[in-house]
Amino acid sequence: MFRTSLCFLAVWSTLLAGDVRADEPGSGPGYFRYPTLSDNGIVFTAAGDLWRVGIRGGEATRLTTKAGEESHAAVSPDGTQVAFSATFDGPTEVYVQRLIDGALPVRLTYEIDGAIVVGWTTDGAVLYTTRRHGDLPGVHLARVDPVTRDTTVLPLSLASDGRYDDEGVLYVTRFAFQGSFTKRYQGGGAQSIWRFRPGATEAEPLTANFAGTSRSPMPWRGRIYFQSDRDGTMNVWSMLPDGRDLRQHTHHVDFDVQGASLRGGRIVYQLAADLRVLDVTNGEDVLVPIRLTSMLTQGKERGVPAPAEWISSAHLSPTGDRLALTARGQVFVAPVKKGPVSLAAREPGVRYRDARFLSDGHTLVALADRTGEFEFWTFPADASRPPIAVSTGATVTRRDGVPSPDGRFVAHQDQDQRLWVHDVVTGEGRIVATSETTAFRDLRWSADGQWLAYVQTGANALARIWLYGVRDGKARPVTTDRFDSYSPTWSPDGAWLYFLSDRTFDSLVASPWGARQPEPFFDRQTRVYQLALKHGARSRFATKDERTTPARDPLDIGAGADGIAVPGPGAIDFDGLAARVSDVPLVPGNYSSLDTDGQRLYFLSWDASAPGRKALRMMPIGDSRGLETLAGSVDRYEVSLDGSTLLLVRGDDLLVLPADGTMPHDVSRTKVVFGDWTLTVQPRDEWRQIFVDAWRQQRDGFYDRGMHGVDWVAMRARYEPLIARVTDRAELGDLVAQMVGELSALHMYVHGGDVAKGDEALLGSLGATLVRDEHRGGYRVTRVFIGDPDLPGERSPLAAPHADVREGDVITAVDGVSSLVPDHIQLLLRDALDKDVRLRVVAGDSGTVRDVVVRPISSRRAAELRYRSWEIERRRRVDEAAAGTIGYLHLRAMNAADMAEWQRAFYPVQGRQGLIIDLRRNTGGNIDSWLLSRLLRQAWFYWQPRTGHPTPNMPSAYRGHIAVLVDQETASDGEAFAEGVRRLGLGVVIGTRTWGGEIWGSVGGALVDRGTATVPDTGVFSAQGEWMIEGHGVDPDVVVENLPAATFRGEDAQLAAAVAYLEQRIREAPVPTVKTPRYPDKRAPIVTSTAAR
């Protein structure tokens, strides 16, 4: 059996001394993106900066050097300037820089929500896209004059890219990139090309006959060149201005064409990591050989500031005097009191995970992908020898390793939901159980290391505790399958198993009657229970007259290494075990994470109104009256093996305190302060590991083990060589995105990681549209975002009663500084988020000058206010058009906040004859079943009180007609709800085909630098056995498109169609008025005299 790493001793000593790679490149090939052409050269992005090179290649020179990423460059028509997007000052904005003398960049936009350069107009304006203009989330094309800074929004909704031809015809890409890295995407959000001619009232679709992607139109000499995946791979195509005469100009198969840009009959584009130039006049397509001449510092070894911020796991040593820390894929050991942090494990291109001490206090065990798969390894805490393999032969990722108290075994599970026990000495691995429901959890060893308790969810979705015996290899359930039982913890003597179980169901809501459909709410379901593992055991919680002293302890306790109590071999009396469960005398509550040091029980507790704020509580065993709260706001905690010490995790802080039953006067004073700690990373090695980890997460987590028929090993082989070309973290993200996109699945997101950033100043917003007005001496307020008038918290700072800044007023100063002094008033709101600022305001009608104090909000909050304005306007239109007979509600997503929106918006209109449920732009979530269950309620009888109208049972059953509005951005669970409405016969779906993402995704494991590559891990199929929605979307029953120009003008054809449909249905099948039947006649029958005789 392979037990040690070949040639590792030399590597390990070099590693600990600090790995300095002789082949670290300072210059050379790079990873080239976002190219654009000048008349005789190319400008592109590499290593986060802009570069320039001749049209035939050669040595490139750097144009920008500031922190952050510069991208989407476009050279002006006269070739003297380059416009680009950058994050110099926080948000992505448009900048322009002269090419001739290398002057500093000049900022042109202050959109806050992001601005991406598209190109230039022939008259010298910069075209860019922004999400700021318009209330409904979506992109718009705008132009900005580099001289005057005047901005104009082009009159087309949802145009994400565009170019003018020589006749002034505008060709645009409709819709932005839909977010998921999905090759061969053909859902409702597929990009297409439209034409907008001068003087026309509406744009025309040119590529509507293809369900896939057509984007980036580039007019030149009577043809429109563009990118399309019509042959399964993104290539360059062209067509006539009316969409006819399609021609394919590139024929790449392995990699997509990206970032194509045309100038003077030549198209430059990215292919893999290279740039190529296509001459459309003769079809010549050549690689541009480029060498970067400046130092590429982002790939060089560097120290990581604030190492503690990168801690991914922390565990106590057996006696609680040290911590095993895993940070950025490396393992460190730190004293809990002051002292240096020492390196225990670090290897080039290897990620260590979740290091823990073994019981000897000198050895660590951790997962590491040293062999290409995550296996368990042991190694000394002082790094004096190389690691030794505990497990081998992994075919999927192993995780969640828990060593036994005697140091002999490691229990863990893998991504295929198999529970393992590995022998640390022999390396033998044994599968304990396999789960067909959810992952195993709460793995806890008995003190003698002979029994493993774990929690497995059954087919009935209820969690059950099992015990696995190392000696006999058998697993046995020890709690009922009728209630959730979890968080087992052993008494040190092995006589008791304490656990939590949800068995108390006292609803705080007593009846189904009342506003907004009251439903049961079961708070404080959990109690602490104890299970006697030996016959005759007496609970320490029992009263004295109930308790007897056994002749001998159920298990003999001896002293092990380091003075830690180690029980002798113990057996469990399984006969009659179920009858030996009893309550611990503690009131029910919201509890989790039960543990014990042998003298006390510890657990986390929280209030239902604030589930994120958990407190660590302690109760002495045998004295329920001694319940104490040790600390609040605790995310996680653990007890050292000897029971002497507690580790508390509170946000980024680690707190260590004695487990002696006393409450520290100030818990914050127990915070671990790390001494000298050096954390260095070699980015190039780390990038390679991240790439493989992202590939491995898809292999082990993708819902289809067949990977949609894609040869996943071959995909790794195709893309992995490109890692050598990567020069910064953003480029690695692009590479990973291209690879995972080959699976052609939605919910495939790649983002985050240790990306170079510019200034991250917090920018405040006044929640209004402001226009620079030199004539009036400041910024004129053209619109104030009010939000919901019935919710005072939803309004702009300018709309606060004490401020009362109105449209037409002018803001002339901020905190005493003229608003016209900086380039934009936004610069005066830097770092002003949630801080008081003083505005000088001139009234627009009277000219009265006054000072008001307001608190700026975030740009995200301002965008939410704009969004709310759109929703309120839709509701007003429906009320006005239908005279109050049709209700309207809009759901932005399908999360808890949207359930709250349903509560606010549905019940006030539940009695109307028609209902519009607007799911346009719905970003998904998971509450479709909640909402569908409400709409499925039927009124099958009525209550009639003495006074008043009859009311239905089921309460709040909706009896009217329903229309659901969808569009290309209705996504995920929003699509599931729309399809459910149709399949369950609840209503009709109106609009356009939806996004098409119904393989639900999870974040997966975070990458070593906290980047993520989500894993679509759960497919959806219907009761009829067909895969649903994925890749295509929900087809509406009634197709209505909101056209670009009409929508920009404020029209909403889809909403109007929904109103018209419901009005027709109400006329054809009005909801019957509920009429109380004739009351029964209960009088005694009249008896006639004849009958009497």
Would you summarize the structure shown here?
This protein has eleven helices and 75 strands.
Describe the structure in your own words.
- Strand 29 and strand 30 form a beta hairpin.
- It contains 11 helices and 75 strands.
- Strands 59, 60, 61, 62, 63 and 64 form a 6-stranded antiparallel beta sheet that branches. Strands 1-2-3-4-25 form a 5-stranded mixed beta sheet, with no helix packed on it. It has a 5-stranded parallel beta sheet with strand order 66-67-70-71-75, sandwiched between helices.
- The N terminus is likely disordered.
- Helix 7 packs parallel to helix 8.
- With about 1100 residues, the protein is mostly beta strands.
Instruction: Assess the beta-strand content as a share of residues.
Output: 25-35%
| Number of helical regions | 11
What is the CATH class designation of one domain? Mainly Beta
* E-strand count: 75
Write down the CATH topology of one domain.
Answer: Neuraminidase
* The CATH architecture of one domain: 6 Propeller
Separation of termini?
110 Å
Estimate the global geometry from the Cα principal axes. Answer: globular
Please tell me the overall pLDDT: 92
**Rg, Cα atoms, Å:** 34 Å
The named CATH superfamily of one domain: Tricorn protease N-terminal domain
Secondary-structure content class: mainly beta
Instruction: Tell me roughly what share of residues is in helical segments.
Output: 10-25%
Low-pLDDT sequence parts: 1-27, 547-569
